[in-house]
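Field notebook, page 248. I keep forgetting to write these up properly, so this time I am using the form the group agreed on. The chain and the ligand, adenosine-5'-triphosphate, are recorded exactly as supplied. Prediction of the bound pose follows.
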Amino acid sequence: MASIAVKELRKTYKSAAEATLKGLTFAFPEGKIGGLLGPNGAGKTTTISILCGLVQADSGEVMIHGLPQNAAHREQIKKIIGIVPQQIALYPQLSAVENLTYFGNLYGLKGKSLHEKVMHYLEVFGLEKSAHKEIHKYSGGMKRRANIIAAILHNPDLLVLDEPTAGVDVQSRSMILQFLRSYNEQGASILYTSHLLEEAQSLCDEVAIMDEGKMILQGRPQSLIDELPECRNLEDVFLHYTGHALRD
Ligand SMILES: Nc1ncnc2c1ncn2[C@@H]1O[C@H](COP(=O)(O)OP(=O)(O)OP(=O)(O)O)[C@@H](O)[C@H]1O
């Protein structure tokens, strides 16, 4: 079964002159790490927001672990998905423990078991010493790591992350990638977006490259590289298909 299947997705924002998604179709198999890649403005965040039920598509189909993403299945899908948005979605004046307890409560978790889980993940993400520090005192990398914990407290089968390693240092990035691999090894499916093609090449079982609201190509990174003799890596493949023109 596919962890995610998207068919003919179309979206034009009310204020926009042009469509953001123009019949986007792709699927990622369950239990794998998928990468949704594309230049600035390609429509990655819009796609992820529709997948997670945060933005309404104009038309098209989205299936999450075999369930259609619609009002009738929203609550069921909410339990399956963990969402890590591009922007840090934590309360800056609250500590990590207070934030994570709040997010755990939203998923119906509470009491000692929630507290133990929060403390466990703070340790896994190297934040145990700052557990009671207010989030606004955290570094960028620490905020990103805490932001991920908020999305996994309910043990989602599908973790969706929008540029989780953007703007973090090498140590935080390495920690985050290591966590994603181990979370995937425990059986979860992962979908992430990134501009970092070297990272996507080493992390992802499969990538889908989109541009200007359309799918360009999808496959295993090494297979895509092997198909083009002049390409040495995923970045070469990406530039081959999306071109060198700068994007706004
Ligand atoms: N709420 C909105 N209202 C109007 N236009 C929007 C809105 N959100 C996104 N867009 C437009 O849709 C297009 C795609 O944006 P989106 O953020 O989905 O792309 P992206 O691939 O995630 O880009 P980036 O890599 O820069 O984050 C852009 O042209 C953007 O300006």
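OBSERVATIONS:
- Strands lie at 2-11, 21-29, 33-37, 59-64, 67-68, 81-84, 158-162, 189-194, 206-211, 214-219.
- Residues 81 and 158 are 5 Å apart (CA to CA).
FOLLOW-UP: compare against the apo run.
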